[in-house]
């Protein structure tokens, strides 16, 4: 793999950038692989990368129906944090957070992980109480998190309306200073490049349309380019996972919903952190290019169309204008939607399935971008050993039968 | 002073050097002053900011985003990539990123360029851009700034400094915004020739029509066209049509109104700017902008086409412009943006620009036609005027830095793929280019319809309609004025037929159609050097995306057009690639050896042009962000100086501090008053749902965990509600008002959710039960008097309710009169004291409340707020759902198994869920009480509890403190907590390690701290 560096850029400038290598090959699928990953989003690509890098399994294909990283990976608002409430979730997301810290170097690709701080605003006594609970739980789990009073919030986020005249005045906030944002495309491309360099075949524009199995054991996948065999298949298809499970002959407790986001036109820096409010229901950060990146909750209905309803956009923007009255004259440039796979307990499913050799990693819903490296890492271990990684174990699909749910609705809050 | 004014008049003299003395749709009798970068200029009514700047000879209007190159005005409409301005005369009225080409001029307009330091003319950043430009190919930032890890945040700080175009105001928006809803039969988008004919046809048929156009005037391309229609100059013809349309009652004409989004089910939004052309800040009592939300039976897109510029080296130097834009400035605004023109074109249409320029009395140096053998009416006309024509050639490069000095012209081969001759440099100051037309397919894309490449018109046209959508005119590749007018009529006739209206009489006016020769498909002008080595050939001017950048992207394996877009940032600007995208896609296809149809296009999404946040939010911001709900006694609470707490949408009194009292003092006083004598709580906010019907009782049986079969009229019962998973989500008391009639109370915050829950289960699962739900929360005021003297107090105000303790028992209710008004009195208690909840019609609430105080003075009747309510209920171990529960708690976890019916004939919601293996485990978190070893300490709510605070991180946690208060009645803190296996750990010590470093020791105990036998309420 060609190493990237500032020096390299200078050198390539001299040769008019004509000698940059391809980021990844465009291989013809082989007849058989040791492992097939269905879905070339961030999670699928990370899985492939760690399979090759940490488990030495390189005869791997990632099969993507569209273009790499074109699903929710390309559509999300890139908030990264690990301040989840319950132990199981906190440890999983923290595992991911630790991988973020150092990911650019590991991949030799700048994913622009920017730990600029993620603030969760508290507007009611209830919010404050939940904030305290979260901060205390995080600290005992070894995850730094802080509680700020409203004066501190006002000082740290000058553009925010912290006045008493707000409909729901800000009473305080929690802040995870290591949290922040990353460049979504770079994450997909960095993992893709890394996986390709280790020998993984990245197969784009190829859809998996069925799972071949005999006697409950997986044999491979049917695709739009024919059958491809593998004794182990990992399905990482986010909003399409319910459909994929049906193809494999079982059901998942997932609902697929549109989730929308929008950006303003690029403006000069006014906000240097991520601000989220469950109560007023919206969140915002500012990209390095200057766009305000904004989102809120899911559209209430189920669907697979990658767009949502206008009323959600209206609610989202009134929340943003309510929190940041100085943004009222700023203009919205573009909106879009992705399909998110939400679970009853707002936690993912990383699990073996009734089909032997077939594993699913899904249900990340509105907040899986932050988990990309961690999810790939534990899923790779799970596929390599055909047995759940310890951090993945609590997220098995059995929990919906046993009742051992991990209810993260509180931490998931306004999504993300 | 005198120097300033003389300077001004001097600048006014050179001002408007590019203004023609005649022509255009401007009012030369109405001069308007405006400022740009601190200098004052003059324009005329009818100008845009762009036309006025061009009239004044302003070349540089900003610096480019990445390379800081000087840029000038390039286009004349929504597709403008460069002329992005900061507007606003005051801090509060700043608007970032206004396109000068779409901003009408008004007197006193203040504008500034958004990039460039110290200013756009001399920008020091450009030296970095020049020096570093070679090192900044697309995606360069992914390849560097990585080492060492700790440095990225520092690098990022500098990268961010260069971010953004304009800036947000620092003060709050003084303006207001509206929304309106409409339904119509036909929405016509665009009021050019196609749209006008469509609207006219639909209007004559009697359809309800809305026609919207983003410009200030209807007419679209006709406003600057040289054509005649029906013997009239085009603009005159437009006037006639508009006059007729205005006569129809059912036709709504919206100008300055951009259809910015096209959503499912023919729902479209229109962003109307009502005052941006008048003043900086909207006039008093007028909203600045308005969003129209339209449901249309049929939509006719008549959005026209944007001209495509050509891509050649240094095509961004000020003086490079779109050909049609040059014509627009000349014909519509009476402005010639230069002296010596070179026109490069692939088609006949653009010849008009050279003709216009020539007729304006300025010099056309040459027309460079990429076609070897152009013939046609306009070409003949140009020849007749003596204009030099250079066929089979192209402008491959530009000389000049801050303004074009020369066009480097070479001949090219027939396919436009290589340069075939040496160069001739044509001295000029303006290069207009035309690569043909790109239909404005944006809105049709919003609905998920992928555009389709059409070789014949060399452009993408809308794909198959996903909605009741029709197209008219250039938007789907129909060109030629006569055909466009006819196409507008046809589209409307289709809609009229579908609407089952009578087809009206419409005759097509006569037009003159010049004979044209075929256009050439050319998306990239070859240079003598290959793409990677040629000087920068810009594709997307706003984002500094070059042909070389696109080629690099595909070389690096970014082969999907979406990858190309994302890697290069092409089309990500505020113009969303209106000018550059098609060229960029074609160049990507070319470098990969594919066709444009194979490569495809990226998807356009709303908004067509940017929309003000405030306009989308409308009035639902500020104090109207969410309704505020007040009880009937609110005024009284305010007068008493209550502090309020937000609970759901309600403003509830939190506590009533007396002069000099802290919150702690007030709560202590209130809490003691209740236990010692009597207190009063405004409990009106609790949700109340009236449930009636023969199925009501059975419905309650299924929805609550406990049994309702035997609740008699006159009785009340507490119940828990669980979701299917067996976890508690609401609670409250439900009373039997009649055999088939119940009144349910819910938590304040949960009321709406419970109502939806009931309806959901009734409508989707148990429709066979005849039962009706009505929310009556607002209909009743609930006045809770609580304390040993509450009966005495109530007795003074009622004569028809027997309050005897043995006839009106705990958990009974009675109807009667209280303070002279009809009332329902419930003997239930959330404090553990003798309590009555008096419900009266809300209108009487304040009256009864005041009467209670008249009589209550002798008992020291004390109003108490939610904080005291919490203290009192916690002393008794009563739960608050949402505080002591969190969606992971079963009734058994709450030690409330008594509220779960064991023998209900039908199942109930949650039964199966709470029986799952994990839900019946021993060491589940269970609700218990906590007493601190140091009785002066009050545990903070949210504190986590552990067995061993010295355990290294991660420390295993037992659970957390859900409720905690100082109890003045007991003289120590009382707390409740969810603790693993807590119910079987009574007497154990646990520890709360706090974030401030303290560790608090506490003992697990019963959660009932006061009056465990419940004697106080049974008196
Ligand atoms: C608007 C929005 C905002 C969000 N914001 C945040 C945020 O701020 N922070 C955060 O942490 N998370 C956020 N998320 C969630 C996050 O985007 C997702 O959880 C995460 O990206 C999921 O990654 P993935 O790789 O599993 O899914 P995807 O990126 O969706 O990848 C799944 C891939 O599977 C492919 N696929 C599906 N079916 C098949 C098939 N049959 N054959 C082949 N390929 C198939 C798809 O094409 C897709 O590329 C947001 C999501 C959205 C939509």
From TrEMBL, chain A:
ATP-binding keyword on record: no
Biological processes annotated in GO: tetrahydrofolate metabolic process
GO cellular-component term (any): cytoplasm
Residues of the Rhodanese domain: 35-79
GO molecular function, a single term: sarcosine oxidase activity
Cofactors (names): FAD; FMN
Localization in the cell: Cytoplasm
InterPro entries: FAD-dep_OxRdtase, FAD/NAD-bd_sf, Rhodanese-like_dom, SoxB
Superkingdom of this protein's organism: Bacteria
The enzyme's E.C. designation: 1.5.3.24
NCBIfam families associated with the record: soxB (TIGR01373)
Family according to the record: Belongs to the SoxB family.
Protein name: Sarcosine oxidase subunit beta
Organism name: Proteobacteria bacterium 228
Record lineage: Bacteria, Pseudomonadati, Pseudomonadota
